[in-house]
Amino acid sequence: MAEDRRHGPFTGAVILFGLTGALTHQTVPARAEEITAAAKEDKIGEYYSLSGLGGSGTGLFAYQGIIALPMGSYGESGPVFRAWGKTFAFEYKTDLIDPEVVLPPVKGVDISAQAYGIELEAGYQFAREDWRLALFIGGSYRYYNLSPDDPRSKLAGHHYDIKVAVDGQFELPGQWGVGFNGSYVTGVEEYWVQMRPHYRTQSYTEFGVDTAAFGGDDYNYARAGLYMAGLDLTQWGAEATYLSGEGGGQIDLDLNTLSAYGAIHVGVKF
User: Fold this and answer.
1) Entry pTM
2) What is the model's pLDDT at position 98?
3) In CATH, which superfamily holds the domain spanning 12-269?
């Protein structure tokens, strides 16, 4: 029986803060008082550029993001603004039915999808010495191009939706911690939930376990692997630039099929 994925097995949820959340809070020291002092010595506010690319057995993605904390830093409570530009591609199989013709469906047709998206988010972060929690709400625009056309797909064309998101971290004794993030986009019905237990070195580079669940109206995935975040590239001539990456395996919870995934991210503080 052909795989029927009218929403497709790889959408923008994979690109979200799930892949970038850990990177952002690696670009500054972990303790709130150190972050606050650094901000006051320089200027009020912190700004980051985030970019990355990656993929899995179901598709490829790339993104560019900007994060602004105009009144403080990641160690302080205050407003946070995020903007994301994304593109991703995936393939799926379905049974095509021509609504204008009464004929049996064409079985097992391969559909190639290319998507582009922009997301704008406004939120507020609550921060203490050992934890932080940020809540966001915003808008999401997506455009999907399907080839060949899939008359039963809800994805084709333009989508204007609402997005809600959460991002946070708890510091534990002995340089251990747990980062987490999640999001939901209406209309395309995407969800993303991620948790990352980790160990942070003296140089503030994190090493840990990457776990996530994500999906939509008719597809559901889970994944697990390892990640590294916040590798300072200053010593290689890239000032205030940080490298992150992850890799592992993911499972299609509906079809019980396995594939590998991986991604690399670069963050710049300016």
Assistant:
1) 0.80
2) 62
3) monomeric porin ompg (2.40.160.40)
